[in-house]
């Protein structure tokens, strides 16, 4: 529900839309500020990115994105359609924190639409599936986005990852959990009530169970929720065509005792009725017994999005992007959403609080230690970098992610020759072993490895060259190990992170919706889409003395 009021401000008469009520989690359910249960009745809202093949993109993930929430004209064009659909939430997969989002966020808020926002960006802007770390670079990227969006009243949740974990690779889970821990602490520190979420790819029940349990467990054994996500999203495409209501019996049973809120972060299979999905799962998803277990979901997708030979889009833009045409899929979803009325039980007062149990044991379905990496320390990494003897020459322009990967592979291959190793810059989530420098960004880690090689090679000039990619620090006084002990007094510390230099200042939701002038909307291509694991940096594995360590 929205309320309108007219405010006279000085000479100007401005229309101000009262804030949307805050959505919070009590136990496993979501509640609106007045205590009524809240369900996500939403849609994915982001155009598919371009796939740019190259050394940085071994799995051909979308490489580009356009920030839909900075496209004022696009938002204005789509708002009537979103209203027709009757959604109360959208999910956006990537945003550019340097752009202005006031206009679009205010428009959505005015229409009663919340935003679930992924903090990740394509390629190196996400925790990597197979070579994961949780470092200052990603922490800073996430915080910059939070600082831009936390002022809006309609931010429902920030996702720390989308489909990072797969059945074959769950070793990134400790890094996601550390990200959830640090982002949660940061949100608390800026008085933001936004929830912290993760969107999981579907899979075998053993995989779903292990991942969902791990992300909401307490490794300390103290029954605390500080490393738990608030909102488990399942990208679920089980329901096909006019399926039987028993379709979801399996996942209902699996999640019957889940301890935090769960919803479908994507749904809408195209397999049985391509282009004319009946969306009959909506009636089942928003009714008992699903509502005892789940808090709604996000249909996929407003914009065209193709995957595995299917087209999931429901709205097509005209060639000049000025207008939009919707399809039968869209009409069907709108009519199913129109029939939904939210159940009101349990009341907030009688909702059980969450309990946070021990983390699941490692095994065939889970290669994730309960030992989490530390909170990345920006000033410590900057301090070490300033004291290193041999540094990577950061190219003035262009994407240097692949180069950093290649050079890291080179120096880690050379270090054993001088009795060194890359153990300090590596991290292994399965073993729960985190090198002392693994929390720093890839460039600082590379410079650290260069400096170890330089130091162990008796600082001969030729050992700090790497085909012109490395440069000697003329005022060098300390060895890399000394730099670390001077700059990083407690390398495994867990603490509340602060905003990096250059981030805009944070504002917790102030209770009024932001009415801004809006920045320049941009057209262009965009990324982030279903089943798209954003963020596979070119990476190299370094095996040292039988113990493999990974750094990108
Ligand atoms: C990704 O790589 C680009 C350059 O290649 C760099 O400017 C950016 O900071 C990196 N982002 C993260 C989160 O590491
Ligand atoms: C490396 O260590 C071994 C054994 O500790 C030693 O024999 C060898 O001389 C060392 N090599 C270098 C290059 O320091
Ligand atoms: C840096 O390293 C890459 C890869 O080894 C090499 O191709 C390049 O020529 C080097 N030099 C510079 C200045 O980039
Ligand atoms: C982070 O690093 C800075 C700079 O070395 C240091 O002063 C500070 O104590 C560190 N913070 C924590 C929590 O360890
Ligand atoms: C329309 O939008 C698309 C995707 O956002 C963009 O690639 C294209 O350049 C835009 N076209 C025009 C005419 O603005
Ligand atoms: C990480 O540690 C596990 C368990 O100790 C080990 O089996 C695995 O090979 C290591 N991973 C890498 C990439 O070295």
What is the strand content? 15-25%
Average pLDDT, all residues: 89
What is the CATH C level class of the largest domain, in words? Answer: Alpha Beta
CATH topology of the largest domain: TIM Barrel
Q: Which value, in Å, is the CA radius of gyration?
A: 24 Å
Instruction: Provide the CATH superfamily of the largest domain.
Output: Glycosidases
Largest sheet: 8 strands, parallel, barrel
Strand order, biggest sheet? 5-6-7-8-9-10-11-12
Features:
globular; 552 residues; Glucanosyltransferase; binds 2-acetamido-2-deoxy-beta-D-glucopyranose; 17% strand; 8-stranded parallel beta barrel; Methane Monooxygenase Hydroxylase, Chain G, domain 1; 1,3-beta-glucanosyltransferase activity; 2 domains; signal; two-stranded antiparallel ribbon; alpha/beta; TIM Barrel; disordered N terminus; transmembrane helix; disordered C terminus; GH
């Amino acid at each position: 529900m929205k309320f309108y009021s007219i405010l006279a401000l000085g000479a100007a008469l401005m229309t101000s839309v009262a804030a949307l009520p805050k959505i919070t989690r009590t136990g496993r359910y979501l509640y609106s500020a007045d205590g009524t249960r809240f369900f996500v009745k939403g849609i994915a809202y982001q155009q598919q990115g371009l796939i740019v093949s190259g050394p940085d993109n071994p799995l051909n993930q979308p490489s580009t994105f356009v920030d839909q929430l900075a496209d004022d004209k696009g938002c204005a064009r789509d708002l009537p359609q979103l209203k027709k659909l009757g959604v109360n939430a959208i999910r956006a997969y990537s945003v550019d924190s340097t752009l202005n989002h006031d206009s679009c966020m205010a428009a959505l808020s005015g229409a009663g639409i919340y935003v679930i926002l992924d903090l990740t960006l394509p390629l190196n802007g996400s925790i990597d599936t197979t070579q994961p770390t949780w470092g200052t670079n990603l922490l800073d990227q996430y915080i910059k986005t939070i600082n831009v969006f936390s002022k809006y009243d309609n931010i429902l949740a920030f996702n720390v990852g989308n489909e990072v974990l797969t059945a074959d690779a769950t070793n990134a889970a400790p890094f996601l959990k550390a990200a959830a821990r640090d982002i949660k602490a940061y949100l608390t520190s800026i008085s933001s009530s936004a929830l912290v979420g993760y969107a999981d790819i579907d899979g075998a029940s053993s995989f779903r169970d292990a991942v969902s349990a791990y992300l909401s467990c307490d490794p300390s054994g103290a029954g605390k929720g500080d490393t738990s996500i608030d909102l488990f999203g399942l990208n679920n495409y089980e329901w096909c065509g006019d399926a039987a209501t028993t379709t979801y019996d399996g996942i209902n049973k699996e999640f019957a005792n889940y301890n935090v809120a769960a919803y479908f972060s994507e749904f809408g299979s195209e397999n049985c009725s391509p282009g004319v999905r009946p969306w009959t799962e909506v009636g089942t998803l928003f009714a008992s017994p699903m509502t005892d277990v789940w808090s709604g979901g996000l249909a996929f997708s407003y914009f065209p999005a193709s995957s595995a030979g299917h087209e999931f889009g429901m709205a097509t833009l005209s060639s000049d992007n000025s207008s939009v045409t919707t399809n039968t899929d869209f009409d069907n979803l709108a009519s199913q959403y129109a029939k939904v009325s939210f159940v009101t039980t349990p009341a907030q007062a009688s909702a059980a609080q969450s309990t946070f149990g021990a983390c699941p044991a490692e095994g065939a379905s889970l290669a994730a230690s309960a030992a989490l990496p530390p909170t990345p320390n920006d000033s410590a990494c900057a301090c070490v970098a300033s004291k290193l003897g041999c540094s990577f020459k950061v190219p003035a322009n262009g994407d240097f992610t692949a180069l950093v990967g290649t050079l890291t592979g080179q120096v880690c291959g050379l270090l054993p020759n001088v009795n060194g190793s890359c153990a300090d810059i590596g991290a292994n989530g399965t073993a729960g072993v985190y090198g002392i420098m693994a929390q720093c960004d890839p460039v600082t880690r590379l410079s650290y490895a260069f400096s170890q090689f330089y130091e162990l090679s008796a600082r001969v000039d030729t050992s700090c060259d790497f085909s012109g990619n490395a440069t000697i620090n003329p005022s060098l006084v300390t060895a890399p190990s000394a730099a670390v002990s001077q700059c990083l007094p407690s390398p495994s510390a867990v603490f509340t992170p602060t905003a990096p230099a250059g981030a805009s200042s944070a504002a917790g939701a102030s209770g009024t919706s932001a009415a801004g002038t809006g920045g320049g909307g941009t057209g262009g291509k965009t990324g982030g889409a279903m089943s798209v694991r954003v963020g596979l940096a070119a990476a190299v594995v370094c095996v040292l003395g039988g113990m493999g360590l990974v750094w990108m």
